Amino acid sequence: MALLDRQPSTPHPQNPTMHELFDTHCHLDEDAFAHERDDVIQRAVACGVTRMLSIGTTLASSLRAVELAKVNPHVRAIVGIHPNYCVTAAEDDWAAICELARDEHVLGVGETGLDRYWDHTPIEQQLDYFRRHIELSWQVSKPFVVHCRDAEPETLALLEEMSRIQPLNGAMHSFAGSAETAAKCLELGLLLSFSGMITYKRNEALLNVARSAPLDRIMIETDAPYLAPVPMRGKRNEPAHVRYTLGVLADARQISREDLAATTTTNAIAFFQWPTAKAV
Ligand SMILES: [Zn+2]
Protein backbone atom coordinates (compact mmCIF):
# COMPACT_ATOMS: atom_id res chain seq x y z
CA MET A 1 0.00 0.00 0.00
CA ALA A 2 2.73 2.41 0.94
CA LEU A 3 4.49 1.58 -2.31
CA LEU A 4 1.44 2.74 -4.23
CA ASP A 5 1.44 5.99 -2.33
CA ARG A 6 4.96 6.83 -3.31
CA GLN A 7 4.45 5.78 -6.89
CA PRO A 8 1.04 6.97 -8.04
CA SER A 9 1.74 5.87 -11.60
CA THR A 10 2.10 2.21 -10.68
CA PRO A 11 -0.54 -0.13 -12.06
CA HIS A 12 -3.77 -0.47 -10.18
CA PRO A 13 -3.66 -3.55 -7.90
CA GLN A 14 -6.90 -5.04 -9.24
CA ASN A 15 -5.95 -4.62 -12.85
CA PRO A 16 -2.29 -4.48 -13.87
CA THR A 17 -3.06 -2.73 -17.15
CA MET A 18 -5.00 0.03 -15.45
CA HIS A 19 -3.40 3.09 -13.92
CA GLU A 20 -4.64 5.03 -10.97
CA LEU A 21 -6.94 7.97 -11.59
CA PHE A 22 -7.83 10.89 -9.35
CA ASP A 23 -11.29 12.49 -9.63
CA THR A 24 -10.56 15.95 -8.27
CA HIS A 25 -14.16 17.14 -8.10
CA CYS A 26 -17.35 15.24 -7.35
CA HIS A 27 -20.35 15.67 -5.11
CA LEU A 28 -20.64 12.27 -3.47
CA ASP A 29 -22.85 13.58 -0.69
CA GLU A 30 -25.70 14.48 -3.04
CA ASP A 31 -29.07 12.74 -3.08
CA ALA A 32 -28.34 11.40 -6.56
CA PHE A 33 -26.09 8.85 -4.82
CA ALA A 34 -28.41 8.01 -1.95
CA HIS A 35 -28.59 4.30 -1.12
CA GLU A 36 -25.72 3.36 -3.42
CA ARG A 37 -22.92 5.66 -2.35
CA ASP A 38 -20.69 2.75 -1.34
CA ASP A 39 -21.34 0.96 -4.64
CA VAL A 40 -20.49 4.13 -6.56
CA ILE A 41 -17.20 4.46 -4.70
CA GLN A 42 -16.41 0.77 -5.16
CA ARG A 43 -17.17 0.97 -8.88
CA ALA A 44 -14.80 3.91 -9.13
CA VAL A 45 -12.02 2.07 -7.32
CA ALA A 46 -12.58 -0.99 -9.54
CA CYS A 47 -11.99 1.32 -12.53
CA GLY A 48 -8.76 2.61 -11.01
CA VAL A 49 -10.20 5.80 -9.51
CA THR A 50 -8.52 5.35 -6.15
CA ARG A 51 -8.80 8.99 -5.07
CA MET A 52 -11.88 11.19 -5.09
CA LEU A 53 -12.48 14.65 -3.68
CA SER A 54 -16.04 15.26 -2.53
CA ILE A 55 -16.80 18.98 -2.68
CA GLY A 56 -19.12 20.85 -0.40
CA THR A 57 -21.59 23.43 -1.67
CA THR A 58 -23.09 24.40 1.70
CA LEU A 59 -22.12 23.86 5.32
CA ALA A 60 -24.39 20.79 5.46
CA SER A 61 -22.90 19.23 2.33
CA SER A 62 -19.37 20.08 3.50
CA LEU A 63 -20.06 18.26 6.76
CA ARG A 64 -21.38 15.26 4.81
CA ALA A 65 -18.25 15.28 2.62
CA VAL A 66 -16.03 15.20 5.71
CA GLU A 67 -18.07 12.33 7.21
CA LEU A 68 -17.62 10.37 3.98
CA ALA A 69 -13.88 11.04 4.01
CA LYS A 70 -13.62 9.82 7.59
CA VAL A 71 -15.02 6.39 6.73
CA ASN A 72 -13.60 5.92 3.25
CA PRO A 73 -9.86 5.97 2.55
CA HIS A 74 -10.47 6.72 -1.14
CA VAL A 75 -12.35 9.92 -0.37
CA ARG A 76 -11.21 13.28 0.98
CA ALA A 77 -13.24 16.46 1.35
CA ILE A 78 -13.16 20.04 0.12
CA VAL A 79 -15.29 22.41 2.22
CA GLY A 80 -16.92 25.67 1.35
CA ILE A 81 -20.03 27.48 0.17
CA HIS A 82 -20.85 27.50 -3.54
CA PRO A 83 -21.57 30.96 -4.97
CA ASN A 84 -25.17 29.98 -5.68
CA TYR A 85 -25.72 29.12 -2.00
CA CYS A 86 -24.02 32.08 -0.32
CA VAL A 87 -27.35 33.87 -0.33
CA THR A 88 -28.92 31.21 1.91
CA ALA A 89 -25.91 30.75 4.20
CA ALA A 90 -26.06 31.96 7.79
CA GLU A 91 -23.09 33.96 9.07
CA ASP A 92 -22.46 31.12 11.55
CA ASP A 93 -22.08 28.77 8.59
CA TRP A 94 -18.94 30.54 7.50
CA ALA A 95 -17.37 30.26 10.95
CA ALA A 96 -18.13 26.54 10.88
CA ILE A 97 -16.54 26.18 7.42
CA CYS A 98 -13.40 27.92 8.72
CA GLU A 99 -13.21 25.43 11.57
CA LEU A 100 -13.93 22.45 9.34
CA ALA A 101 -11.24 23.51 6.85
CA ARG A 102 -8.62 22.61 9.44
CA ASP A 103 -9.77 18.98 9.66
CA GLU A 104 -7.16 16.50 8.46
CA HIS A 105 -9.70 14.91 6.08
CA VAL A 106 -10.13 18.23 4.30
CA LEU A 107 -7.69 18.93 1.47
CA GLY A 108 -9.00 22.23 0.16
CA VAL A 109 -11.48 25.07 0.27
CA GLY A 110 -14.46 25.50 -2.09
CA GLU A 111 -16.18 25.37 -4.25
CA THR A 112 -16.10 29.11 -4.49
CA GLY A 113 -16.15 31.58 -7.36
CA LEU A 114 -18.72 33.47 -9.38
CA ASP A 115 -21.90 32.39 -11.16
CA ARG A 116 -23.69 34.93 -13.31
CA TYR A 117 -25.66 32.25 -15.16
CA TRP A 118 -27.97 31.40 -12.26
CA ASP A 119 -27.32 34.65 -10.42
CA HIS A 120 -29.00 33.31 -7.26
CA THR A 121 -26.68 35.34 -5.02
CA PRO A 122 -26.14 39.09 -5.53
CA ILE A 123 -22.74 39.55 -7.18
CA GLU A 124 -21.36 41.66 -4.32
CA GLN A 125 -22.05 38.81 -1.91
CA GLN A 126 -20.48 36.28 -4.30
CA LEU A 127 -17.35 38.44 -4.48
CA ASP A 128 -17.25 38.71 -0.68
CA TYR A 129 -17.41 34.93 -0.23
CA PHE A 130 -14.90 34.36 -3.02
CA ARG A 131 -12.41 36.60 -1.17
CA ARG A 132 -13.16 34.83 2.12
CA HIS A 133 -12.43 31.42 0.60
CA ILE A 134 -9.08 32.60 -0.79
CA GLU A 135 -8.14 34.12 2.57
CA LEU A 136 -9.12 30.86 4.27
CA SER A 137 -6.97 28.96 1.77
CA TRP A 138 -4.03 31.09 2.90
CA GLN A 139 -4.85 30.62 6.57
CA VAL A 140 -5.05 26.83 6.45
CA SER A 141 -2.43 26.40 3.70
CA LYS A 142 -4.77 24.35 1.53
CA PRO A 143 -5.72 25.12 -2.08
CA PHE A 144 -9.02 26.67 -3.18
CA VAL A 145 -11.28 25.41 -5.96
CA VAL A 146 -12.98 27.87 -8.31
CA HIS A 147 -16.38 27.62 -9.97
CA CYS A 148 -16.78 30.13 -12.81
CA ARG A 149 -19.91 30.35 -14.91
CA ASP A 150 -20.58 33.25 -17.26
CA ALA A 151 -18.23 35.38 -15.17
CA GLU A 152 -14.75 35.09 -16.62
CA PRO A 153 -13.78 38.81 -16.54
CA GLU A 154 -15.03 39.24 -12.96
CA THR A 155 -13.36 36.03 -11.82
CA LEU A 156 -10.03 36.99 -13.37
CA ALA A 157 -10.25 40.48 -11.89
CA LEU A 158 -10.78 39.10 -8.40
CA LEU A 159 -8.02 36.53 -8.76
CA GLU A 160 -5.64 39.24 -9.94
CA GLU A 161 -6.63 41.49 -7.05
CA MET A 162 -6.01 38.72 -4.52
CA SER A 163 -2.74 37.63 -6.15
CA ARG A 164 -1.32 41.07 -5.38
CA ILE A 165 -1.76 40.31 -1.66
CA GLN A 166 -0.25 36.83 -1.64
CA PRO A 167 0.44 34.09 -4.22
CA LEU A 168 -2.59 32.02 -5.11
CA ASN A 169 -2.84 28.28 -4.63
CA GLY A 170 -5.96 27.41 -6.59
CA ALA A 171 -7.54 25.40 -9.36
CA MET A 172 -10.25 26.21 -11.90
CA HIS A 173 -12.75 23.37 -11.67
CA SER A 174 -14.46 22.05 -14.81
CA PHE A 175 -12.60 24.68 -16.77
CA ALA A 176 -14.79 25.89 -19.62
CA GLY A 177 -13.29 29.28 -20.42
CA SER A 178 -11.48 30.72 -23.38
CA ALA A 179 -7.83 30.19 -24.29
CA GLU A 180 -7.14 33.73 -23.03
CA THR A 181 -8.74 33.01 -19.66
CA ALA A 182 -6.79 29.76 -19.42
CA ALA A 183 -3.55 31.62 -20.11
CA LYS A 184 -4.37 34.22 -17.43
CA CYS A 185 -5.23 31.53 -14.87
CA LEU A 186 -1.97 29.71 -15.59
CA GLU A 187 -0.08 33.00 -15.30
CA LEU A 188 -1.66 33.49 -11.87
CA GLY A 189 -0.33 30.10 -10.84
CA LEU A 190 -3.60 28.20 -10.98
CA LEU A 191 -4.15 24.66 -12.24
CA LEU A 192 -6.89 23.75 -14.71
CA SER A 193 -9.18 20.80 -14.05
CA PHE A 194 -11.07 19.41 -17.04
CA SER A 195 -14.41 17.58 -16.87
CA GLY A 196 -16.65 15.63 -19.23
CA MET A 197 -17.36 18.91 -21.03
CA ILE A 198 -14.27 18.33 -23.16
CA THR A 199 -15.88 15.17 -24.54
CA TYR A 200 -18.89 17.05 -25.96
CA LYS A 201 -18.95 17.42 -29.75
CA ARG A 202 -19.51 21.16 -29.81
CA ASN A 203 -16.69 21.88 -27.40
CA GLU A 204 -13.81 21.64 -29.86
CA ALA A 205 -12.45 25.01 -28.69
CA LEU A 206 -12.41 23.83 -25.09
CA LEU A 207 -10.70 20.58 -26.06
CA ASN A 208 -8.08 22.71 -27.79
CA VAL A 209 -7.46 24.58 -24.54
CA ALA A 210 -7.09 21.26 -22.71
CA ARG A 211 -4.81 19.95 -25.45
CA SER A 212 -2.42 22.87 -25.23
CA ALA A 213 -2.30 23.48 -21.46
CA PRO A 214 1.04 22.56 -19.86
CA LEU A 215 1.00 18.91 -18.82
CA ASP A 216 2.14 19.67 -15.28
CA ARG A 217 -0.76 22.08 -14.70
CA ILE A 218 -3.79 19.94 -15.56
CA MET A 219 -6.09 17.62 -13.63
CA ILE A 220 -9.27 15.72 -14.49
CA GLU A 221 -12.62 15.48 -12.72
CA THR A 222 -16.21 14.37 -13.16
CA ASP A 223 -18.26 17.00 -11.26
CA ALA A 224 -20.51 13.97 -10.66
CA PRO A 225 -23.49 13.65 -10.53
CA TYR A 226 -23.39 16.38 -13.20
CA LEU A 227 -21.68 16.72 -16.60
CA ALA A 228 -21.46 13.04 -17.56
CA PRO A 229 -18.91 12.58 -20.36
CA VAL A 230 -19.67 10.98 -23.70
CA PRO A 231 -20.75 8.12 -23.97
CA MET A 232 -22.64 8.57 -20.70
CA ARG A 233 -23.86 12.07 -21.53
CA GLY A 234 -27.34 12.76 -20.19
CA LYS A 235 -27.07 10.08 -17.52
CA ARG A 236 -26.16 10.52 -13.90
CA ASN A 237 -22.42 10.94 -13.73
CA GLU A 238 -20.17 9.10 -11.24
CA PRO A 239 -16.42 9.11 -10.49
CA ALA A 240 -15.79 5.87 -12.47
CA HIS A 241 -16.62 7.85 -15.63
CA VAL A 242 -13.57 10.10 -15.29
CA ARG A 243 -11.77 7.57 -17.50
CA TYR A 244 -13.79 8.71 -20.54
CA THR A 245 -12.55 12.26 -20.09
CA LEU A 246 -9.04 10.90 -19.67
CA GLY A 247 -9.39 8.95 -22.93
CA VAL A 248 -10.55 11.95 -24.96
CA LEU A 249 -7.82 14.16 -23.56
CA ALA A 250 -5.12 11.52 -24.08
CA ASP A 251 -6.18 11.11 -27.73
CA ALA A 252 -6.27 14.88 -28.24
CA ARG A 253 -2.78 15.23 -26.79
CA GLN A 254 -1.55 12.15 -28.64
CA ILE A 255 -0.17 10.53 -25.53
CA SER A 256 -1.10 7.21 -23.97
CA ARG A 257 -3.89 6.92 -21.43
CA GLU A 258 -1.35 5.46 -19.01
CA ASP A 259 0.94 8.46 -19.30
CA LEU A 260 -1.89 10.96 -18.94
CA ALA A 261 -3.33 9.03 -15.98
CA ALA A 262 0.06 9.05 -14.30
CA THR A 263 0.59 12.75 -14.98
CA THR A 264 -2.85 14.00 -13.89
CA THR A 265 -2.85 11.79 -10.80
CA THR A 266 0.62 12.93 -9.81
CA ASN A 267 -0.38 16.57 -10.35
CA ALA A 268 -3.50 16.20 -8.21
CA ILE A 269 -1.73 14.35 -5.39
CA ALA A 270 0.90 17.09 -5.21
CA PHE A 271 -1.55 19.97 -5.55
CA PHE A 272 -4.00 18.75 -2.90
CA GLN A 273 -1.27 17.09 -0.82
CA TRP A 274 -3.17 13.84 -0.54
CA PRO A 275 -1.79 12.30 2.65
CA THR A 276 0.45 9.50 1.48
CA ALA A 277 0.39 7.56 4.74
CA LYS A 278 -3.39 7.15 4.57
CA ALA A 279 -4.10 6.91 0.86
CA VAL A 280 -5.53 3.75 -0.67
ZN1 LIG B 1 -19.09 21.10 -8.52
CATH A-level architecture: Alpha-Beta Barrel
- Amount of beta strand: 15-25%
Regarding quaternary structure, how should these chains be classified? single chain
Topology as H/E string? HEEEHEHEHEHEHEHEHEHH
Low-confidence runs: 1-8
CATH class: Alpha Beta
Q: How far apart are the termini?
A: 7 Å
Largest sheet: 8 strands, parallel
Count of helical regions: 10
Extended strand count: 10
Q: How many structural domains can be distinguished in the coordinates?
A: 1
CATH homologous superfamily (4th level) name: Metal-dependent hydrolases
Percent helix among the residues?
40-55%
Spatially, the strands of the biggest sheet line up as 3-4-5-6-7-8-9-10
The CATH topology annotation reads as TIM Barrel
Ions, cofactors and other ligands present here are: zinc ion
| Mean pLDDT over the residues | 93
Q: Which term fits the overall shape?
A: globular
Report Rg.
17 Å
Keywords:
41% helix, alpha/beta, TIM Barrel, 10 strands, 280 residues, single chain, two-stranded antiparallel ribbon, globular, 10 helices, eight-stranded parallel β-sheet, binds zinc ion
Describe this structure in words.
With 280 residues, this protein is an alpha/beta fold. It has a single domain (2-272), classed as Metal-dependent hydrolases (TIM Barrel, Alpha-Beta Barrel), CATH 3.20.20. Helix content is 41%, strand content 18%. It contains 10 helices and 10 strands. The chain has helices spanning 2-6, 37-46, 59-71, 91-100, 123-140, 152-163, 179-187, 204-212, 242-253, 257-272, and strands at 11-12, 15-19, 21-26, 49-55, 75-79, 106-115, 144-149, 170-172, 191-194, 218-220. An 8-stranded parallel sheet has the order 3-4-5-6-7-8-9-10. Strands 1-2 form a two-stranded antiparallel sheet. α3 runs parallel beside α4 and α9 crosses α10. The radius of gyration is 17 Å and the shape is globular. The termini are close together. The structure holds zinc ion (ZN). Residues 25, 27, 55, 111, 223 line the site of zinc ion (ZN).
